[in-house]
Design a protein that fits this description.
By secondary structure, the chain is of the alpha/beta class. The protein contains 19 helices and nine strands.
Length: 583
């Protein structure tokens, strides 16, 4: 009963969208119909006289102009290519078990099976219509297809939509959990196959694509004028359809959800918990582990395998491991792929493309890095780069150099020189962060909270401002594709979803001082760089992770108190007076 109610609601809203389309067509044909009446009346001798003659001369050109404009708008709406989500296509020969599972699920739900399967480097799944004639695979999408082992021929006009699955789900979930999560998604192919709903969706997507075409910059003045008119009409129609289209999609979702109730309902409740866990682990893996590598021109080639390690660690730390061992004993969903490593590499490269804006293919300045190489290739290099930047800032603020080379003592002595708290200039910025500041800083709302106390260390502000300025000078755009290469997708400029965690100047200075401490530990106490799946780069002292370093460095940075940090250095055998190697 619920399935029918949702489907009927969706169909009624689809008909409302189609009525708006019919009304728009009627308005476009109305001047032409009036002109035909006037011309027919003159030929039959009924509408004669000067007034009717003038009316014919006025209405006929207007009708022709309106018809031409309507044909142009209809042509743009029909031919404009709707936006397509960047994905990694999975051919059936590279994942026969996955296709078999999806088709079996569609049979159990009594709905059409999706026409194809694709992966997205995100924690979400959906159906995507790719039946538009312009949706042949772009050249760059073919690159991802080759990486994934996909050689799917172009299929235009296929009725069923494409099933897009979040790649973290395949690696983290078990086969039964993935089937339960996909059940409501696959059930959506049933309402999507209805002619009225399909026609309404095509009309709305065409209007949306026409608005995007009309907004494309770099056109000549006459073309811009025409595109402005087309865009205005498309926006008006899109606004008129907005409420009906939204309610239509809600009806489709309600019908799909109700239909999926009979399939693995109990398991789906359990699987939804894994969806939330996967999202948390994926977010932390991208922002704390992958992002530092991307900024250094490297991309982790096994992100999906990494999310399994991150979620395993998260489960253990948060005491979620009850029944965890038995769950891991079940078959993982990635076993449904013939070559999961190749698919993981393609999805990882696409993730770097989406979230950072790197090139679509590997190159000399954009090379993959494996997890076992990460500590030496990324962590060590990052710390030494940050430490070198901090010493350059010390040079600019006039701190004397040590004769043997850069040392940790230089930083400790400068920051631990405490004096009376100098009154702050009320006109100076509370936290000196330059606009568009970068990096590791990539400033976005970097100002601290109004009630956040200012650091008492008088040396804090000059160093923080110097680091911000130095990072701004180093800031360069992410490696771009050669100019002659075609655009990958026509739905925006990469990165589509940039990862820019807000960082205050307090965090910026603390991270740089911590980097110098880690460099001193590696060079004077045989410490080693490590990788923590949840927190990113970590320092291993005597084989154990240094968990209490951050608070000691923060005490030095904020209060100018070096005692906690010096005590830890002595206990760890680190000699701050010894010079260290920097980048």
């Amino acid at each position: 009963m619920g399935v029918e109610a949702g489907a009927q609601a969706a169909r009624s809203r689809a008909l409302a969208v189609l009525r708006i389309r019919s009304r728009a067509l009627a308005v476009a044909l109305l001047p032409a119909a009036l002109a035909v009446v006037l011309l027919a009346g003159a030929s039959t001798g009924h509408l004669v006289g000067p007034a009717w003659h003038v009316a014919r001369w006025v209405v006929t050109p207007v009708a022709v102009l309106v018809l031409l404009a309507a044909c142009a708008i209809a042509l743009i709406v029909a031919r404009a290519r709707p936006a397509v989500s960047p994905t990694v296509a999975i051919a059936e020969e590279s994942a026969p078990d996955l296709y078999r599972m999806v088709r079996d699920l569609a049979d159990r739900l009594d709905v059409p099976a999706p026409s194809a399967i694709a992966l997205t480097p995100d924690c979400d799944s959906w159906l995507e219509d790719r039946t538009h004639p312009a949706h042949g695979p772009p050249p760059s999408e073919n690159r991802h297809d080759e990486l994934a082992g996909a050689h799917t021929p172009r299929r235009r006009g296929t009725a069923a939509p494409v099933l897009v699955i979040g790649s973290p789900f395949l690696w983290w979930m078990r086969v039964g959990e993935l089937r339960a999560v996909l059940a409501p998604v696959v059930a959506g192919t049933g309402p999507s196959a209805h002619p009225d709903i399909a026609a309404a969706r095509r009309f709305v997507r065409g209007l949306d694509a026409a608005v995007a075409v009309a907004s494309t910059p770099g056109r000549c003045p006459m073309t811009r004028l025409v595109c402005a008119g087309v865009g205005r009409v498309a926006r008006l129609l899109l606004y008129s359809c907005q409420e009906h289209a939204t309610l239509m999609e809600r009806g489709v979702a309600a019908a799909a959800s109700e239909r999926a109730q009979a399939v693995d309902y109990g398991l789906r409740i359990v699987a939804q918990e894994q969806v939330g866990l996967a999202y948390a682990g994926w977010d932390r893996l991208l922002t704390r582990v992958a992002l530092p590598a991307w900024r250094m021109g490297r991309w982790p080639a096994r992100l999906d395998a990494g999310v399994v390690a991150a979620l395993t660690e998260l489960s253990r730390r948060d005491r979620l491991a009850e029944g965890f061992t038995s769950r891991l004993g079940e078959r993982p969903a990635c076993d449904l792929l013939e070559e999961p490593g190749t698919v993981d590499e393609a999805a990882s490269l696409l993730a770097a493309r989406l979230f950072h804006g790197g090139p679509a293919a590997p190159g000399p300045d954009w090379s993959p890095v494996n997890w076992d190489e990460y500590p030496d290739e990324i962590v060590d290099r990052k710390w030494r780069t940050d430490a070198a930047r901090l010493h350059r800032v010390l040079d600019t603020v006039g701190v004397s150099r040590t004769p043997d080379g850069p040392t940790l003592s230089r930083i400790l002595d400068h920051l631990s020189t405490q004096g009376p708290s100098a009154p702050r200039d009320p006109h100076a910025p509370h936290e000196p962060v330059a606009a568009g500041s970068p990096d590791d800083g990539e400033a976005k709302d970097d100002e601290p909270e109004e009630d956040e106390p200012a650091p008492r260390n008088p040396h804090f502000a000059p160093l923080a401002a110097g680091l911000t300025a130095e990072l701004a000078r180093e800031k360069t755009p992410a490696p771009a594709e050669p100019p002659e290469a075609p655009a990958i997708w026509d739905d925006g400029t990469f990165p589509l979803f940039p990862l820019q965690p807000p960082r205050s100047s307090r965090e910026l200075l603390t991270d740089h001082v911590t980097a110098m401490v880690c460099c001193a530990a590696m060079d004077t106490a045989d410490a080693a760089p490590g990788l923590d799946w949840l927190d990113g780069p970590s320092l291993l002292v005597n084989g154990e992770r240094a968990t209490d370093l951050a608070s000691r460095v923060l005490s030095l940075v904020e209060d100018g108190d070096p005692a906690p940090l010096r005590s830890w250095l002595r206990e760890s055998g680190i000699r701050p007076e010894k010079p260290v190697r920097l980048v």
